[in-house]
User: Fold these one by one.
Assistant:
Number 1:
Amino acid sequence: MLKPQSVPAKTLISELHEVLMCTKLSHYSTKSFAQHEALGKTYDSINDLADSITERILGYTNDTLTSFTFKEILPSPASMLGTKIIGLAERLEKTSKENNWPDVENLAQELSGVGAQLSYLGRFN
């Protein structure tokens, strides 16, 4: 398995909000009630985490966020989205560790758990 790469803070913030929108779109587009429910809970969790993570990173960096850059957002199956969330959480954790942001590192670990739970729940239709 490849080690996660450190990523610029604003890129991580954009990726976090991109995965949030992908989760919501996937929630709306699934035809499985079980996945609809799992994606809805995942969206709520990521929404709360995204807000906390973004505010803390902006506080640490003393930066201002004026825009997001997203590529095209398409729905994803829950299990694939779970894997994507885990990968983002790993990059966020690595960057947090390198910058000595321990609370963001903890939130990244929580985000990874959200991704793992979605990967598990994505197996049920």
Note: The chain has one domain: 9-121.
Number 2:
Amino acid sequence: MMHAQRFATMREPDRRRLADGSRAPSAGGQAHSATMSAEAMTVLYRALIDADDRNDPAELARIGWQLFSKACIAQQSHLEVTDLLSELRSAARAVIAGQGSPGSVALLRYVLARNGWLPPAGATPLQVLAAPAVPSRRVYGRYHLAA
């Protein structure tokens, strides 16, 4: 309820600024986040309800499109991450089946290299495990997914 009260006291430009965080990706192919804060979602839902109360079809369409676009981005991101995890699972299973032989490690090395996840040359297993997680640098379509 606190978010709704805060939204009600905001000026219109501030409402739009918060709501604009969920705009659909532009045709330019820029990277977009697949996440949305609970506050931004609350603001959009509140704006949707207000537009409905005012019988403003243009505003309803604009906000509905923002919500739909964000849902599409999240769905696409989910599918692409699922595909990547499936590929990593297959590569890891091949390593286990091949008992760590060089040939069985090749697919895993390829998947890690393609995504920029190979450890630095000369790093020991302990150094790799102790290092902080490195975010993904992979860009799926037009959407960047942070790991």
Note: The first helix runs from residue 2 to 9.
